[in-house]
Recover the amino acids of this structure.
């Protein structure tokens, strides 16, 4: 049962999207880029008001949403990239997945991953 992002530390990168009204279109973008997302060990979470969508395939604790918003001070209209080390790598006003992929691919840990593939 996932209660907070710390359980994903060193295993996954996280994209946290806190949106006001375009949750379905954001989820569609993630689904269309599933192979690239999986290759980069990304788990995404899309928050809209009090609802949550994710590609995490385990169970989420009832307090997961409030823990995530509190820890990363996620505000509406923000897109955050959180590295495998648990640190916020970037924060944007909108989801531009290609830019996020380029940012991830430039990270030292990702460079090592690409060399070993």
């Amino acid at each position: 049962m996932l209660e907070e992002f710390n359980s994903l530390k060193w295993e996954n990168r996280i994209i946290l999207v806190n949106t006001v009204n375009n949750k379905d279109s954001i989820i569609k973008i993630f689904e269309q880029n599933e192979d690239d997302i999986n290759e980069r060990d990304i788990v995404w979470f899309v928050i809209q008001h009090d609802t949550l969508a994710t590609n995490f395939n385990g169970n989420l604790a009832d307090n997961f949403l409030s823990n995530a918003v509190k820890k990363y001070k996620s505000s509406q209209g923000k897109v955050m990239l959180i590295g495998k080390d648990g640190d916020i790598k970037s924060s944007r006003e909108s989801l531009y997945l290609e830019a996020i992929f380029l940012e991830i691919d430039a990270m030292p840990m990702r460079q090592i991953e690409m060399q070993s593939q």
Q: What stands out?
A: The mean pLDDT is 93. The domain at 5-116 is CATH 3.40.30.10 (Glutaredoxin). The chain is about 35% helix and 25% strand.
